[in-house]
From TrEMBL, chains A, B:
<keyword id="KW-0378">Hydrolase</keyword>
<dbReference type="Pfam" id="PF03636">
    <property type="entry name" value="Glyco_hydro_65N"/>
</dbReference>
<dbReference type="InterPro" id="IPR037018">
    <property type="entry name" value="GH65_N"/>
</dbReference>
<keyword id="KW-0808">Transferase</keyword>
<feature type="binding site">
    <location>
        <begin position="361"/>
        <end position="362"/>
    </location>
    <ligand>
        <name>substrate</name>
    </ligand>
</feature>
<dbReference type="GO" id="GO:0030246">
    <property type="term" value="F:carbohydrate binding"/>
</dbReference>
<dbReference type="InterPro" id="IPR017045">
    <property type="entry name" value="Malt_Pase/Glycosyl_Hdrlase"/>
</dbReference>
<feature type="compositionally biased region" description="Pro residues">
    <location>
        <begin position="762"/>
        <end position="775"/>
    </location>
</feature>
<feature type="active site" description="Proton donor">
    <location>
        <position position="488"/>
    </location>
</feature>
<feature type="domain" description="Glycoside hydrolase family 65 C-terminal">
    <location>
        <begin position="689"/>
        <end position="749"/>
    </location>
</feature>
<dbReference type="InterPro" id="IPR011013">
    <property type="entry name" value="Gal_mutarotase_sf_dom"/>
</dbReference>
<dbReference type="InterPro" id="IPR008928">
    <property type="entry name" value="6-hairpin_glycosidase_sf"/>
</dbReference>
<feature type="domain" description="Glycoside hydrolase family 65 central catalytic">
    <location>
        <begin position="327"/>
        <end position="679"/>
    </location>
</feature>
<protein>
    <submittedName>
        <fullName>Kojibiose phosphorylase</fullName>
        <ecNumber>2.4.1.230</ecNumber>
    </submittedName>
</protein>
<dbReference type="InterPro" id="IPR012341">
    <property type="entry name" value="6hp_glycosidase-like_sf"/>
</dbReference>
<dbReference type="GO" id="GO:0004553">
    <property type="term" value="F:hydrolase activity, hydrolyzing O-glycosyl compounds"/>
</dbReference>
<dbReference type="InterPro" id="IPR005195">
    <property type="entry name" value="Glyco_hydro_65_M"/>
</dbReference>
Length: 784, 784
């Protein structure tokens, strides 16, 4: 790829050795730090140049009206957009009288390293000012995974060859000017100056800003403190204004002499707490951070991550790029979800403003399958967030004339923010995706406290939605008409197979859990009749099938539609949604992202092997992957039906989505679901892992480019390590006593500390497939 | 109905004898005057109080951005909204020092009469000022059907019982303040102060204003002149400002003495002509109007209308309300279309701002079937307007990836202005509706000059659209997927029967006419291969049928959808679109307006009698008539399948739509298509008229409430009079030599001046039908 930064291929870090100011935005996303509560884009310490300045707090948004040329009943009136909160990253440097700014002078050397084991973003740069004065800057930055409200920076500036007068201005900046938004509808609407000042103050080496969002009425506080090590010629001042708090330190540095500044920043926000309360909250957190100190924060971060990697690492041998990419993915998904704690995990995490900062089905369908097996507490918290939003989802269902809960297609708070209902509200599968994630979480953790409270209620309310959304037709089939499945190049279709199969699973799971906790279910008004009506609907669920072609139509009638003119669609016309009207896409056979194929991945038991092969081949030829949510699923099914090389190709596409900026929009934030999809492609794809009624099964097989794959999975009290080579697989239990799994359908009881090794049968070569012209994934013939 | 003005039932006029200021808006619509070029709402002479002030010029609009919460490729960016142009109606009156204003003082008597034969709106009022001074005002107003740019008012004020000082201020007013728009999305967006002043001037007894619209850049001029007859104590002044020109006359009136003012107003507008040119245009027209004089204008109007009624009158005996309503309808449809001359006939005519002043398929499907047989020149002109917009429609087709022309769902200039594509752009049937109107026009007029130019090109471009929109499936059927039919409670469905049948007719007609004028067709690139491909697609057109239920689904799959919960829908939840989301409406069996039933009315030969009866009964139970475009079509098919009483009920609903304000929005303008539908319900319904390949057929039968129905139809050089009683029908040719028609399928050659009378066979009573609960039409048991 041209036009993206070059990163060195290293197993445990992401290293940039040159800086290209034209593609700064992408580097800010991949070098973003966060903990699920705070997100800091990888902006340069001095604030500019930047692609997009960004500091985010999970749940902090501004409301904006959603306009309609022709409004309809039930169209959401208010949207929600993530906003850039007070920027605590800024440390400006004056070298003699020249501002340190990479757009002027000369960069003599540059390096930024994101270390997945330390969790630090380090930067080293040697710069010559326009007047020929040279400085070295070394900064380290962290957003603490242990202290949720805390971020910190260690900043050092050194005079290289002449004595220098340096001034550091360390700031909190609110309402930063943002670059203008692009015309691409996927890019978030940019809101200007959303923060209304409430309070500002400064004290020795520190400062504080409190603001409130104008419409959504959220109170946001940021505080900072500093610790300085410097030559004696020191001079310190503090000052504060409505949108600026500043700590200024001045020093004269002899050649080789360094000024070292530690900056502690804390954040807090609340919808209900008073200004003094929120202020006290950030000042309290600040006291804790200062007490811990920089080295202490660094140590805590390392300890947290050591534990994480011990539980979660994925080892890939034979393809160093994939090895790096999967650790990059694990690290960033951890950052997105680790400390979200009853808040959403947005599609971009807290790394950018793409998709307005909204959370979608991405979380439950792509991110939680990974978090459930490596950071189960974070998966549980994400579902607790959905649970907390049930009142809004019930109200939305009521507005739509439905029972139960209608979860939003896109949201920050839980309120529906989709302004185009055919590809928003109509995508009711989000309900089943949430239900499936809850069932999966309970299956993996055995968390019965969760199951009988959060899980039960989520299942009841989603089952009620399906029961009221579908109906029995004259032939007794349970139909779900007029909804939109995962593929966004179709909409408002009858009996989408993915939706119907997921709804079936939802209804059966709800019935099972409601019967398991019948007393509690009765408290929610669920009696035996209602449970029976769920089982009945599930049993009668209509799954259309095209007997002539011998494939499942994605939805009823799909296979009768005209084929998209793939041959007549040149490469520059992708993504299609930016060059063709929805009307044209919806009525033809063209698939944006895995839909029927995702149904086969998640509800595999509903298809025969023969159907899987035929369906996969049919949809391969139609799927253009204009969504980043497609490649990982295609990797999973390619592996299952025996296209191992293709599975590897799709794995690489998912893995390199952001590192290679494959969708050309990483500048707006990372594709968190595709990052998680890297793990899914390896674990559900190459290791062939499936979960069915709480039991894990594996059908591992590696493509030729990968010689060894080892994954670690948390299961109940156990940790299962699965290590795969070309010819064998070894299952090993690291905690816990015993676990029954399936290896290529053979039951195996894995016991602690007794690795079990099994051979892997060769798979016969599958018949060749084709993708739409120009849309085949890059062949991964020569991995590095 | 409560809350609408009461009108006396009279055969040739609409008379209001009380004024209710709360429902002034409706009266302004029904008393509107126009000629297709100028439209003046029936505002009170003194300007206020008003429901909505309104002066419109056909084609004059302002552009406005169409906002989208989530925009898609091909969404129109600019909307068009009809604007209130310079108001030339205003004549303010000062009685001593009290302004004549019905909100103050006392109205002692009031009458307004719209006379369908004179074309005058007359008003008589006696008013007592708050100071107890009484005046009589008598005004007459016309918008000339003969002099297209001219309107005029004769205004008289008389002192009743004391000597009075009166001041008349006759004005041109631009950028009038308008009432705030309602939340109902069907109400037009109201634009404030859209006119930018360019020129104003005054001269003896006259004045002129020239403005330009800010964004659309249209230049609009209005001029006025006056002629006064008064006592000698006269004092006249003129003045002009940017948005106001005023002629003021002062007089002292003794009891019984009258001041009489004639006001001439002319309008002109242009997108390209210079300010001096447009100014000269209105001043020239003004000179002509003054030369003609008030009495001359009145005489011209009467002569024009005498001719119109001789050709177009419909006589209804036995139901005086229907008699009045059909003449009201004929008069207003004439006003909407008479002098439109290469401009659109909007859904509201020029009577209000409803639907933004846009034209829809209403014109071709409801209005032109009437105009074609009574004012064929106006029907031809409406189609010439479509022809003139072909460049825009071709460009739209190209943008949508289609061939030929994609006519806009809603527009003023011909550019698509629909901001919700599922119920806009996807309603491609507009193309076939236009084609059918062109074929009908040629069949009725024999206008071969039109056929080989306008008609041929319209047919070619619409046929090309269908050929590129549909495709042959694996079974060789020609399918049209993902489009929206007439029923707006369904959208984006496959193989809508109405659409497919109308497209079939379009393709066959295009092939026939292209073969008839093959040299000219070749100039448009149409060769024998292309014509063959049209015939082939038409022959293979897929018309879905539900074998189990024995009915046609409105679109593929429709009859498998869940039934709307009609029993659970209380009356206050209608119209459904204001109380339920589209997602819910689209996926269930509920019909806003005749769709499959319209297909049976317009393509009757494609259905057996048995199918018609079964289909009609099936859709009667689903159709809620939330659209004013439904009742007339249901009247037509009710009559055909033998439900004569029901046909009469639907006829009355169509006929009284505006007079009884049945949709509660007549204030926004008249329902021109429903007015035309009154004629359609009588002629295609009760007289059973159909046109097939140029031949008219009749199957007349009257419901019990109507004892005689006589209609007059223009056909080629002939005029056919059809007079129906309970037991007989008489066909009479009034010009021309001979005409072959079908009477209950029996061919009859009607010759000039030899009436032919035939008996009407009794029809066996049809099995009872039912409509959704609460949605049956009012029974017309006791007509007046």
């Amino acid at each position: 790829m041209i036009g993206h930064p070059f990163y060195a291929v290293e197993p445990w870090s992401l290293r940039e050795t040159e800086i290209d100011l034209d593609v700064l935005g992408q580097s800010e996303s991949v070098f973003a730090l966060g903990n699920g509560h705070i997100g800091w884009r990888g902006n340069l310490d001095e604030g500019e140049p930047h692609g997009l300045p960004g500091a985010y707090l999970n749940g902090v948004y501004e409301s904006r009206p959603l306009p309609y040329a022709e409004a309809g009943y039930g169209d959401p009136e208010a949207g929600q957009t993530v906003i850039n909160v007070t920027n605590g990253k800024v440390i400006r440097l004056l070298v003699d009288d020249a501002p340190f700014d990479l757009r002027y002078g000369r960069v003599l050397d540059h390096e930024r390293v994101l270390d997945f084991r330390t969790g630090l973003l380090e930067r080293r740069v040697t710069w010559e000012s326009p007047m020929g004065k040279r400085v070295k800057v070394h900064s380290s930055r962290l957003v603490s995974l242990v202290q949720r409200s805390v971020a910190a920076i260690c900043y050092e500036v050194e005079a290289v060859d002449t004595e220098l007068w340096v001034v550091l201005q360390s700031e909190l900046v609110a309402n930063e000017a943002l670059p203008d938004g692009a015309a691409d509808p996927r890019v978030a609407a940019v809101l200007k100056a959303p923060l209304v000042p409430e309070e500002n103050s400064s004290r020795t080496a520190g400062g504080l800003l409190v603001h409130r969002t104008a419409v959504s009425g959220l109170r946001i506080a940021a505080a900072m403190d500093h610790h300085i090590q410097a030559p004696p010629s020191l001079n310190e001042t503090v000052e504060s204004f409505e949108d600026l708090a500043r700590y200024t330190v001045t020093a004269v540095l002899k050649p080789g002499e360094r000024l070292r500044l530690i900056k502690y920043v804390t954040y807090g926000w609340s919808q209900v707490r008073s200004e003094p309360a929120v202020r006290a909250q950030v000042e309290g957190a600040l006291a804790g951070a200062v007490r811990t100190g920089w080295e202490g924060l660094v140590d805590q971060q390392r300890t947290y991550l050591d534990d994480f990697w011990a539980r979660a690492d994925v080892e890939v041998e034979g393809d160093a790029e994939i090895q790096q990419a999967v650790r990059f993915a694990l690290f960033h998904v951890l950052q997105a979800g680790a400390r979200a704690e009853h808040r959403a995990i947005p599609a971009k995490g807290l790394t950018g403003t793409g998709y307005d900062g909204h959370a979608f089905w991405d979380t439950e369908t792509f991110v939680l399958p990974m978090l459930t097996y490596i950071v189960p507490q974070a998966a549980g918290d994400a579902l607790r967030w959905r649970y907390d939003t049930l009142p809004l989802a019930k109200e939305r269902a009521r507005q739509l004339g439905l029972k139960g809960a209608a979860f939003p297609w896109r949201t920050i708070t839980g309120a529906e923010c989709s302004g185009y209902w055919p590809a928003g509200t109509a995508a009711f599968h989000i309900d089943a995706d949430i239900a499936a994630a809850a069932v999966r979480y309970v299956g993996a953790t055995g968390d019965t406290d969760f199951e009988k409270t959060i899980g039960l209620e989520l299942l009841i309310q989603t089952a009620r939605l399906w029961r009221s959304l579908g109906h029995h037709d004259g032939q007794g089939r349970f139909r779900i008409d007029g909804v939109t499945g995962p593929d966004e190049y179709s909409a408002i279709a009858d009996n989408n197979v993915y939706t119907n199969l997921m709804a079936q699973h939802n209804l059966v799971s709800a019935a099972t859990v409601a019967e398991r906790y019948s007393d509690r279910a009765l408290e929610s008004g669920v009696d035996a009749e209602e449970v029976a009506s769920w089982r009945d609907a599930a049993a009668a669920m209509y799954i259309p099938y095209d007997d002539v072609l011998g494939v499942h139509p994605q939805a009823e009638g799909f296979t009768s539609h005209e084929m998209w003119d793939f041959a007549g669609t040149p490469p520059e016309k992708y993504p299609l949604l930016l060059h063709f009207p929805y009307f044209d896409l919806y009525r033809k056979q063209v698939v944006k992202q895995a839909d029927l194929v995702l149904a086969m991945a998640l509800r595999g038991e509903a298809f025969t092997d023969e159907q899987k092969s035929r369906n996969f081949a049919y949809y391969e030829a139609l799927t253009v992957r204009d969504s980043s949510l497609s490649a990982c699923t295609q990797a999973v099914m390619a592996a299952e039906v025996g296209h191992l090389q293709l599975a590897g190709d799709y794995l690489a596409e998912a893995a390199l989505m952001d590192l290679d900026d494959l969708q050309h929009n990483t500048r707006d934030g990372l594709h968190v679901a595709s990052l998680a999809g890297t793990w899914v492609a390896l674990v559900a794809g190459l290791a062939g892992m499936r979960e069915h009624e709480g039991t894990l099964s594996f059908k591992p097989r590696l493509p030729s480019g990968i010689t060894r794959l080892a994954v670690n999975l948390s299961l109940h009290a156990s940790r299962l390590r699965v290590e795969i080579t070309a010819n064998t697989v070894t299952y090993q239990l690291q905690d816990g006593s015993s676990l029954r799994i399936l290896h290529h359908d053979e039951p195996i009881d894995v016991t602690a500390d007794t690795p079990i090794t099994r051979p892997i049968a060769r798979i016969p070569p599958a018949p060749p497939l084709h993708q739409p012209p120009g849309r085949a994934p890059l062949r991964r013939d020569a991995p590095q």
